Amino acid sequence: MARVLRGDLLAADLCRTVAEGVLQMQGEHGVTPGLAVVLVGQDPASQVYVARKMAKATEIGIRSFEHRLPEDTQEGQLLELIIQLNADPAVHGILVQLPLPSRFRADKVLNAIDPAKDVDGFHPVNVGRLSVGAAGLIPCTPLGCLMLLDEVIQHFRGLKAVVIGKSNIVGKPVALLLLERECTVEVTHIHTRNLPEIVRTADIVVVAAGSPRLVRGDWVKPGAVVIDVGINRITAPDGRSRIVGDVAADEMGHAGVVTPVPGGVGPMTVACLLSNTLRAAQMAHGEGECRQDELSSRRRSKVAAD
Ligand code: NAD
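A: This is the predicted complex of the input protein with nicotinamide-adenine-dinucleotide.
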């Protein structure tokens, strides 16, 4: 049987580490890390995500500032709020919940966030830093995937990794992080030919397609590590609504490791957001710059040594 790699447990562990970091910042600098979350409109899924992030932030001692803006907010008003948050020393991290209503230019809004407070890691400056291997804030879901992989893989060098999905939010940054670990990375997408054959070559499969049961058992080589990022709401045969990933989980018995959905990458995304907020606060107070993915492997080494 494949090992089920529980992201909820690792996320709880990471949140404890972040909570300790928050206490340390308060003790050393008299500063409490602050996270501002901006939500425009009434999208039900976004409301749930924002509530979850704010509650977790508060639980571990991060100050959260919630800005709920009505559906008819103008882009200029949102940009004005971002300028204020950029200038506010109590705010170390700014997250604008996506998707924004379609009339907003999301790139313009995200580009307005100070890169030093860009805890989602979507600003072009942070994307550029990631691509050249420099210190910056790394997108939360890809960082969470890497931390999960760090739990089960000691030596990445030379492993073949296949990433399914090429979005700016997940697929591309995951591929960059795996390249930085010196994997041989193949990025695939909806127009890729022979996807099953490509996936069969992989030691590591990261799936972020948004397509339920896309990755079947016979696509996955025995012993491979499979990270399922997908979140899909489906109606099960019993008529109930369920959340499933992009992997046919019941066919993964021969895989080495599989992350579950729910309880896999999702909780890691929230934990990494809080970790990024602490990191942004530390950097604002002059603590040394270091890539978060390096911190992930150092953390793993420390746990192994303890
Ligand atoms: P997206 O729609 O922006 O990108 C999807 C990518 O998958 C595209 O590059 C597309 O070409 C590719 N794709 C789609 N269908 C495919 C197929 N049949 N074969 C091969 N490639 C295919 O989506 P996204 O924002 O990257 O999110 C992907 C999934 O991950 C979604 O289910 C989303 O809900 C989930 N997600 C989860 C978390 C989390 O915290 N767990 C965070 C972000 C996204």
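The pocket of nicotinamide-adenine-dinucleotide is lined by residues 141, 164-167, 169-171, 188-190, 192, 195, 208-211, 214, 229-232, 265-266, 269 (CB under 6 Å). DSSP finds ten helices and eleven strands in the chain.
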